[in-house]
Specification:
Layout: H1 3-23, H2 33-36, H3 40-65, H4 72-86, H5 88-97, H6 102-130, H7 135-140, H8 144-159, H9 164-179, H10 184-191
Helix pairs in contact: 1-3, 1-4, 1-5, 3-5, 3-9, 4-6, 5-6, 6-8, 6-9, 8-9
């Protein structure tokens, strides 16, 4: 399979995920600012999740750009990633509708943790398939951002049932860490 089919399918799934999330924001029954206030938690959870899906889309694009060919294992690992990302709208909606209470924040963290783990698996399969001189391996090297994100999600999930506000802050911090596009892959491809 050519990698452009994998890219197109993944792009389509991520676009659908964003569409589903925005459709969960219900139009208020009123025309003043007071009618919008109950939607603030829903909008804030949507904003955070929109940023996360954008981060995944951006980094996924850069990662796939480094590939020369697609293996069956890469196809399954990519589907694994898309599965976890497809749960983001549900976790986002539940968290926003329940005004950031503990159990929805816990579930949101599990989805973020599993998405990050799935991305890590896909990344490592691409490196294994492309060989020891792969541009992806050279660009990420120690990958402190990826490993640090996994650790932050794990901590956030563990403490979410007792300190949900701390978990939410960790989710925001990880998003801010990744908000600027990761230039490591671009630099590695330019020096090649």
């Amino acid at each position: 399979m050519e990698k452009n089919r994998l890219e197109a399918f993944s792009d389509g799934v991520m676009a659908i995920i964003i569409t589903i999330m925005v459709l969960e924001i219900k139009v208020p029954h009123g025309e003043d600012v007071q009618a919008l206030l109950p939607l603030l938690p829903v909008f804030m959870s949507y904003l955070l999740s929109f940023i996360y899906i954008g981060i995944y889309w951006n980094n996924h694009h850069h990662m796939l750009y480094t590939m020369r060919h697609v293996s069956g294992a890469i196809l399954w690992a990519n589907l694994h990633l898309l599965f976890w990302l497809s749960l983001v709208p549900f976790a986002t909606g539940w968290m926003g509708e329940n005004h950031f209470t503990a159990l929805p924040i816990f579930l949101y963290g599990v989805v973020l943790l599993m998405s990050a783990l799935a991305y890590w698996i896909l990344q490592n399969l691409i490196i294994a398939t492309q060989g020891s001189d792969s541009a992806l391996r050279k660009s990420i090297q120690q990958d402190w951002k990826g490993k640090g994100s996994l650790l932050a999600y794990a901590i956030a999930v563990i403490v979410s049932l007792w300190f949900s506000w701390l978990s939410l802050m960790l989710y925001v911090l990880v998003a801010l860490l990744w908000l600027l596009p990761d230039k490591r892959i671009e630099r590695a491809l330019m020096t090649r």
